[in-house]
Amino acid sequence: MSAIQERLSATWQRLLDWWDRLSRPQKWVFGIILFTAVALSPIFTPSFLDTPGISFGGTMAQFAMIAIIAVGLNVVVGQAGLLDLGYVGFYAVGAYTVALLTSPESPWNKMGPTGFFSAPWAWLSCVPLAMAVTALTGLILGFPTLRLRGDYLAIVTLGFGEIIRLLADNLGDITNGPRGLNEIAFPHLLESQQHPEGVFSASNSRGDANYGTWWFWLGLVLIVGILLLVGNLERSRVGRAWIAVREDEDAAEVMGVNTFRFKLWAFTIGAAIGGLSGALYAGQVQYVAPPTFNIINSMLFLCAVVLGGQGNKLGVILGAFIIVYLPNRLLGVHFLGIDVGNLKYLFFGLALVVLMIFRPQGLFPARQQLLAYRNAARELLMARPSEKEPAQ
Amino acid sequence: MTAPRNDTAPETVKANIKDLAGFHREIHAGVGEVLMQITDLTVKFGGLVALDAVTFDIRRGEILGLIGPNGAGKTTCFNAITGVYRPSFGSVTFDGAPVGRIKRHQITRLGIARTFQNIRLFSEMTALENVMVGADARHRTSVPGALIRSRRHRREEHEAIERSAALLHFVDIAHRGGEKAKNLSYGDQRRLEIARALATEPKLLCLDEPAAGFNPSEKSALIDLIRKIRDDGYTVLLIEHDMRLVMGVTDRIVVLEFGRKIADGLPTEIREDPAVIAAYLGVPDDDIS
Amino acid sequence: MNLAANITFNVGGLFDNFWQLTIDGLSWGAIYALVAVGYTLVFGLLRLINFAHSEIFMLGMFGAYFALDMILGFTPSGNAYNKGVFLTVLYLGIAMLFAMLVAGSAAIGLEFIAYRPLRKRNARSLTFLITAIGMSFVIQQFVLFILPKLISGYGGPNAQQPITLVQPKTQFTFFGVAVSNTTIVVIVSALVLAVLTDVAINRTKFGRGIRAVAQDPATATLMGVSRERIIMTTFLIGGLLAGAAALLYTLKVPQGIIYSGGFLLGIKAFSAAVLGGIGNLRGALLGGLLLGIMENYGQALFGTQWRDVVAFVLLVLVLLIRPTGILGESLGKARV
């Protein structure tokens, strides 16, 4: 076992080293090519990639949503080092915010003549609201709990995640309980005769450019935006504070880092991103119900982050891809009379256990970039002659 | 004024470093005046009295040594001064204002910075990034500014990089600035800790056994560094075990034993003080001279 | 907005049935307590939240079922068997022993396969947590998909056909409280096991070994205490108690033997352990009993659907107000 493990990890390491040796522009070119390929994949799906049992566009849409979650959770777990086992709660709050405001079965529905949302723009307007509400939830949740350390924080967040789900399940008068909320709004874009409700509607379910694909493209755009924003945070005192908190919280405090405030920020930002993904989910599936937001999904999100390599925001996206794509790929494949796609949790469990033994840092090491002006820093460090006049 | 690169370059860079790494903070106490006054400081852990009515002062611009045998209460005193422990009794006044119950992360805002006896760097961050965490503490931009890369954010980021790089030059580890802290040599790690502490622009720099684990040549290099720090305007409080180092670099010494102050004065006085010699009973005379 | 329609405030109902609710709550609490011990001992010793402990419990349930079904030859039926007190107790005893065997072995296997390799590699606590979650998935999915292929009729998405050995019947009334036979069996068995465990931890050489390793593993090793053996035995004890609790659980809920049957109970037991003071043996017992009672009160007060919420709300409250629990953490502090 050990020889195979060494070979695998050596090959992987070689790949990583090759990537490191590329120059910045080269990496960008690669990135753009890869991005375009991924974006076009639902249209030109190579057969080895295709998912026979289920819509490929839909799978990719799901991937985009989980990728957003992974980036958000990475901020909390990977960067700031806060063990959050209840992240699915934020997903739920985002989804339910959109649902409660737009579903005709909800008592708080704001659609139609009495409300202030008009059908085509309702979903879009709800998204920032969903993010704001979720961020507020994160703030409220974080305030009392972030003074707990390590394992205790993990348990408390787990408890809160379940409480949110149980509230959704039991407050039936508002949330329609286990029956869930239906007919949630979605963006009406590119309406045509063929697609009277726009390309994002579930009625657009045939062909390659089905509604799954459109949601996937929307998700991709959002992912890029979030990566840029989170990247900005990383390359600032905020990102450095987070890593400092993760590495040695006490030393960070003594060095002047207001650890509680930055932990709260991490939590709130992570929550907002989770809420965004929830809003996407609600709009795409157009139906939210409590069973989706259970502990198992919380664990799966954590798996995506751990698999990809915590602290590496691109790595966790790959982790999300693995988690979403593989089970869908294997759906319909039968082995010994069992539909292999159903074994996804079994495989994930095994993969996790094996990974934690042999490569606990995940597939991609954390390659954090914490300086906004790396080249300037490099120059200053090399004591190259400064053109500046000495200050008077 | 573009002078040819090779001859004026080192001077220009050096002048810049001195400017960026030097002491610029607003401070009330004049040079030689009392910067920190510790009066009747008492710290109890349950029934154990770790510090018993300790009184001394630290003057601006000096290097004060705090010594004593193991268990004397040096680290406790240190922690009480820097706000890590709450004193059971007594007071600490710093730069004219009393040090009350402050939150730990506000210690640097007061103007006190410290290093740790067992090095506590942020191992996964590079040396430069470690120092920048210290420099960040003096800045005001936070999440909103960073998100949109506001002008103030960009300016503060530049300033932090310049100052941190200058500090790395100051402690002479700039050539390793881009490496992860955990990969640095032991000596470089100690220097890095000092640079990080200096980045917070402290009025008082507290060094907790900075020479632990050093060989004699490293120790004398450290002495030079500490002197350089003081010459640039900082005030230094030094806990150390190594007598040679303490005698060689400090201006004044305070001696603790069993939580009490037993002596206080110039190094030459301390060396002859019978109470101090008795406290260190068993230590051969050569080590004290 | 009718929030009130979903949450009743049935204070009258609570007071009318107070003692009944308390006694019944104690019998639930006894089960929680036994499972909680497993969580608390492992946490106290290794600072590890053994997420897979709920699956150990679940395997214990299947073990009990197997004993009744295959070994003792009862066939699943809707009716109870009622073989008389002596025989029933005997059969239950056999089933419990078998459940303990299965759960205990599973616990040891878990430690050996999943946790020991991590300890050898000095993994950090997040790694242990992820592995525990992974093993939890693996065991559940194994019972769901693989077990039916190994033993026909076992596992799969549906619960096992219940085998009811004894019909729950009120044995006697005590100041207006009806005490049923199942309640007696559960409380008595749990009491005996709890006392045995307490003695084992507090008064034996082995128990001192646990406390030594919890406080200072290096020194304990120097004193001749085998750390690995202590850890193995701790997992074993937790597994045995979980197996016993599993049998008792099937007495109360014979239709609850299903791959997902351990999950909720595990979380509740864990909350109980935290409530009583994680790392503290008596805390786990106390916490379990308290949780059982509180759940019953909560159900009476707020409505049946809020029963499960009680555990989580208590969990969160305890962690926010007094994270060390009622009796405080103590395995590492020479006072179990």
Question: Which keywords apply here?
Answer:
heterotrimer, A: 392 residues, ABC transporter involved in vitamin B12 uptake, BtuC, two-stranded antiparallel sheet, two-stranded antiparallel ribbon, 64% helix, globular, B: 289 residues, alpha/beta, four-stranded antiparallel sheet, 10 strands
The gyration radius over C-alpha positions of chain C equals 20 Å
Poorly predicted spans of chain C = 331-336
Structural class of chain A: mainly alpha
CATH architecture of chain A: Orthogonal Bundle
How is the biggest beta sheet of chain A arranged? 2 strands, antiparallel
Terminal Cα separation of chain A, in Å?
66 Å
- Name of the top-level CATH class of chain C: Mainly Alpha
Q: Provide the structure class of chain C.
A: mainly alpha
Strand order of the largest sheet of chain C: 1-2
- Which fold name corresponds to the CATH topology of chain C? ABC transporter involved in vitamin B12 uptake, BtuC
Helical stretch tally of chain C: 13
Text of the CATH class of chain A: Mainly Alpha
What's the count of strands of chain A? 4
Proportion of residues in extended strands of chain C: under 5%
Strand content of chain A: under 5%
The outline of chain A comes out as globular
CATH architecture of chain C: Orthogonal Bundle
CATH fold assignment of chain A: ABC transporter involved in vitamin B12 uptake, BtuC
Q: What does the largest sheet of chain C look like?
A: 2 strands, antiparallel
Note the run of SSEs of chain A as H and E.
Answer: HHHHHHHEHHHHEHHEEHH
Q: How many strands in all of chain C?
A: 2
Question: Could you outline the blueprint of secondary structure elements for this entry?
Answer:
The complex is a heterotrimer of chains A (392), B (289) and C (336).
Chain A: H1 2-21, H2 24-40, H3 56-79, H4 88-102, H5 119-145, H6 150-170, H7 172-175, E1 181-182, H8 211-234, H9 237-247, H10 249-254, H11 259-285, E2 287-288, H12 295-308, H13 313-330, E3 334-335, E4 338-339, H14 344-358, H15 374-381
Antiparallel strand pairs in A: 1-2, 3-4
Helix pairs in contact in A: 3-8, 3-11, 3-12, 3-13, 4-5, 4-6, 4-11, 5-11, 9-11, 12-13
Chain B: H1 5-21, E1 34-45, E2 48-59, E3 63-67, H2 74-81, E4 89-94, E5 97-98, H3 107-110, E6 112-114, H4 127-136, H5 143-148, H6 151-170, H7 186-199, E7 204-208, H8 216-231, E8 235-239, H9 243-249, E9 252-257, E10 260-265, H10 267-272, H11 274-279, H12 285-288
Helix pairs in contact in B: 1-6, 4-6, 4-7, 6-7
Chain C: H1 3-6, H2 11-16, H3 18-46, H4 53-71, H5 85-120, H6 125-150, E1 170-174, E2 177-180, H7 181-203, H8 205-215, H9 217-222, H10 227-252, H11 263-276, H12 281-302, H13 307-321
